[in-house]
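Memo to structure team: turn this sequence into structure tokens by end of day. - J.P.
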Amino acid sequence: MAVEPKLVKTIFKDLSFTTTENELLAHSFKRLELSKHNLLLEAGQQVNDQYFVASGCLRTYYIDPDGKEHTVQFAVEDWWISDYTAFFNSSQAAMHIECIQDSTLFKITKNEMEALYLAMPKLESYFRKKMERAFSSFQKRIISNLAQSASERYLNFIHTYPNIEQSVKNYHIASYLGITTQSLSRIRKELAQG
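Reply from structure team:
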């Protein structure tokens, strides 16, 4: 179902729109309600959409040839999520996206996005800036994984996702950090002891 025009403000908090633009945006986004454990996306599926998280928590993960899961990203309220490599290249997903909590999402297709860019150039600037921040964050994460200790990576994680630990299983966090759950427990214990 399409979103209500007033909900457009939920997605674009920092932008203002005319009534006509609001209606166009409302018709371009579709609302999704997903339950905990639902898969939003599976590897091998064609990726045509990106999603804004209005509420809930999701995780993007990759399964390697040995069957091991590697958590790539968590998406919480006000974040965007997709398999972006597949989304931008109009190809099949390499990753899965799972709901960790019941979630409300607003989805938009690549074609609808392109049409909105033409109708409202300020959106193209908005998404360019969003992608610049995302690229910067991913680059920082790569450097962190290469150069920081597991404890430093954990501290970065809780800074990036301050309210997520209660919602996410320990093995998801450990997978995101590239460590074992035992190492995660040890790090938490050491930090708690000061």
